[in-house]
TrEMBL record:
UniProt-listed Gene3D superfamilies: 6.20.440.10, Aspartate Aminotransferase, domain 1, Type I PLP-dependent aspartate aminotransferase-like (Major domain)
Protein's gene: gcvPB
HAMAP family, alphabetized: GcvPB
GO BP terms: glycine decarboxylation via glycine cleavage system
Example of a GO cellular component annotation carried by this entry: glycine cleavage complex
Reaction equations catalysed: N(6)-[(R)-lipoyl]-L-lysyl-[glycine-cleavage complex H protein] + glycine + H(+) = N(6)-[(R)-S(8)-aminomethyldihydrolipoyl]-L-lysyl-[glycine-cleavage complex H protein] + CO2
Native source organism of the sequence: Staphylococcus argensis
GO molecular function, one term: glycine dehydrogenase (decarboxylating) activity
Protein name: Probable glycine dehydrogenase (decarboxylating) subunit 2
Summary of subunit composition and partner proteins: The glycine cleavage system is composed of four proteins: P, T, L and H. In this organism, the P 'protein' is a heterodimer of two subunits.
Length: 492
C-alpha cells in the first residue's frame, strides 16, 4: 500500500453505510419528494456525497483549518485589507445567547437589546466619521460603495440632474470603485496621480464637467499617502455639482485624528470587518455601513433603527429611500464585534490604533528602503507600496518573492496593486503586530532580495516547504477542477 504524504480527501475516507449523525425517531408520516416538489427539481441520480463517521468528519475539517492561513496563525500584511487581530472578547459577546439566538423576524418588543446595539453603533459611527446619519444594512465594502452611489443617483435625479452619469476614480483606486460605479449605472472616468502619488489637481480640473456625479476617494489613498489637497478637491467637485464619496477601507490610519465629514465628503462606507476587527477573509462575513450628510439622509435604505423615547424600532417611512439593500438588517454578528471593539478601545484607544498602524508601516518602509525601490519616499500612513524592479533585473519578479515568503511562514502582501507601480508590493502591518514580528518580516524580505541577486533559482522555484509546490496558475484559472471525479492514482 502506498502511503500518501498528504491527508486523504473526505471522499477517500468515505465508506458506504457510515454516517456522522443520529436523528430522533420520526413522529410524522414520510412524504415522497415527488409529492412536494415539481419533477424538474428532483435528482435523477443519487448525490455522490461522502459517507463518513463523526470522528473522520471532525478530523477532515480540523485538517482543513490547520492548512488554512489566518491572522491567528501568522503575519498577514495584505495591503489595503487591514488583516488585524480579532480580539476574542468580540467573539464572546457575539455568542451571548440573547444575541446569537435572536431571530430577525422576532417582534421588536422581543429584541430591544439587539436594536439598542444597532442604534448605539450607528451613533458611534456617526461620531467617528462626521456623518449625520448611518445605515448598517450593506453586507460589505463594495456593497456599501454601490449603496452610496445609488443614493447619489437618486439625489441627482430628484434634483433634476439625472444627466450626471460619470464617476471620477483615481488611477490608484481600489478595483471595486470603478466596478461599483459601473454596476450602479455610471461611467468610470480616471483621474491621474501626480509624482507624489496624490490626485493630480490639474487632471481633475480637466475631467470634471457637467456630467460629473461624484468622485470616489479613500484618504489616505491606496498608496498609503494622505491627500493633502483634499479641501481643494472638494471645492472643485462641489462647484461642478458633483458629490464626494469616501471609501473607508483605509480609515485604520486616521481614526479619531480626522473625519471624512470634516474633509467635505458627502457619503462614506466603513468596513467593520477590517477597521473594527470583525473576522475578515474567506469571502466574509462582512459589513459595510454607509454614512451620509443630512442632505442625503432621506435617501438611505429602509428601514433605519431609531430611538423613540425608551423604545427602539424600525423606521420604514423614509421619504426618498432607495429601498432595502439587504435582507433583514444586515450582518448582526459583525455589528456586535465592532461595537465591542469600539467600546473596549474608547476615543483614546482608537487614536492609539491609528498611531501604531502608521508607526509600524513607516518602520517597515525605513528598514526596506535600501533593498527595494520605494516610488513614493514621503512618510506613509498605515500602508505603503514598494517596487521589485531591482530584483526584476536578476530575473526575479514580485510574484516569485511572494511565493518565497511562504517558506518563512508569512502570508505575502498584496502584489501588482495598485497598477501604477511597476512590480508593486503593497504592505500593511496594522497596529496589532509586535516589533519582533515586523523585524522577522523585514529580515525575510531582505534575505529574499539577497537570494534574488546571488541565488535566483532558490526564489524562482519557491515555495519549498509548503504542502504543495508552486501551482500552474494559468492552468488553474483556465481549467479548474471543481469537483471530485474519483481517485486519480491506483492504490497497491
Amino acid at each position: 500500500m502506498v502511503v500518501s504524504k498528504s491527508s486523504p480527501l473526505i471522499f477517500e475516507r468515505s465508506r458506504e453505510g457510515r454516517y456522522a449523525y443520529s436523528l430522533p425517531q420520526k413522529e410524522v408520516e414520510s412524504q415522497s419528494v415527488n409529492d412536494v416538489f415539481d419533477e424538474k427539481f428532483i435528482r435523477k441520480e443519487k448525490a455522490e456525497l461522502p459517507e463518513v463517521a463523526e470522528l473522520d468528519l471532525v478530523r477532515h475539517y480540523t485538517e482543513l483549518s490547520n492548512k488554512n492561513f489566518g491572522v491567528d496563525s501568522g503575519f498577514y500584511p495584505l495591503g489595503s485589507c487591514t488583516m488585524k487581530y480579532n480580539p476574542k472578547i468580540n467573539e464572546k459577546v457575539a455568542r451571548l445567547g440573547g444575541f446569537a439566538e435572536a431571530h430577525p423576524l422576532q417582534d421588536e418588543s422581543q429584541v430591544q437589546g439587539s436594536l439598542e446595539i444597532i442604534h448605539s453603533l450607528q451613533e458611534e459611527l456617526k461620531e467617528i466619521t462626521g456623518m449625520d446619519e448611518v445605515t448598517l444594512q450593506p453586507a460589505a465594502g463594495a456593497h456599501g460603495e454601490w449603496t452610496a452611489l445609488m443614493i447619489f443617483k437618486a439625489y441627482h435625479q430628484k434634483n433634476g440632474q439625472g444627466h450626471r452619469n460619470e464617476v471620477i476614480v483615481p488611477d490608484s483606486a481600489h478595483g471595486t470603485n470603478p466596478a461599483s460605479a459601473a454596476f450602479a449605472g455610471f461611467k468610470a472616468v480616471t483621474v491621474k496621480s501626480n509624482e507624489r502619488g496624490e490626485v493630480d489637481i490639474e487632471d481633475l480640473k480637466r475631467v470634471v464637467n457637467e456630467n460629473t456625479a461624484a468622485i470616489m476617494l479613500t484618504n489616505p489613498n491606496t498608496l498609503g499617502i494622505f491627500e493633502k489637497n483634499i479641501m481643494e478637491i472638494r471645492e472643485i467637485v462641489h462647484e461642478a455639482g458633483g458629490l464626494l464619496y469616501y471609501d473607508g477601507a483605509n480609515l485604520n490610519a486616521i481614526m479619531d485624528k480626522v473625519r471624512p465629514g470634516d474633509m467635505g465628503f458627502d457619503a462614506v462606507h466603513l468596513n467593520l470587518h477590517k477597521t473594527f476587527t470583525g473576522p475578515h477573509g474567506g469571502g466574509g462575513p462582512g459589513s459595510g455601513p454607509v454614512g451620509v450628510v443630512k442632505e442625503l439622509a432621506s435617501y438611505l435604505p429602509k428601514p433605519l433603527v431609531v430611538k423613540d423615547g425608551d423604545h427602539y424600532r424600525y423606521e420604514n417611512e423614509i421619504e426618498n429611500s432607495i429601498g432595502r439593500v439587504k435582507p433583514f438588517y444586515g450582518n448582526f454578528g459583525i455589528y456586535l464585534r465592532a461595537y465591542t471593539y469600539i467600546r473596549t478601545m474608547g476615543n483614546k484607544g482608537l487614536q492609539e490604533v491609528s498611531e501604531a498602524a502608521v508607526l509600524n508601516a513607516n518602520y517597515i518602509k525605513a528598514r526596506l528602503k535600501d533593498e527595494f525601490d520605494i516610488p513614493f519616499e514621503q512618510y506613509c500612513k498605515h500602508e505603503f507600496v514598494l517596487s521589485g524592479s531591482k530584483q526584476k533585473e536578476h530575473g526575479v519578479r514580485t510574484l516569485d518573492m511572494a511565493k518565497r515568503l511562504l517558506d518563512f511562514g508569512v502570508h505575502p502582501p498584496t502584489i501588482y496593486f495598485p497598477l501604477n507601480v511597476d512590480e508593486g508590493m503593497m504592505i500593511e502591518p496594522t497596529e496589532t503586530e509586535s516589533k519582533e514580528t515586523l523585524d522577522y518580516f523585514c529580515d525575510a524580505l531582505i534575505q529574499i532580495s539577497e537570494e534574488a541577486k546571488n541565488d535566483p533559482d532558490k526564489v524562482l522555484e519557491a515555495p519549498h516547504h509548503t504542502i504543495i509546490d508552486r501551482l500552474d496558475e494559468t492552468k488553474a484559472a483556465r481549467k479548474p477542477v471543481l469537483k471530485f471525479d474519483g481517485l486519480h492514482a491506483e492504490k497497491e
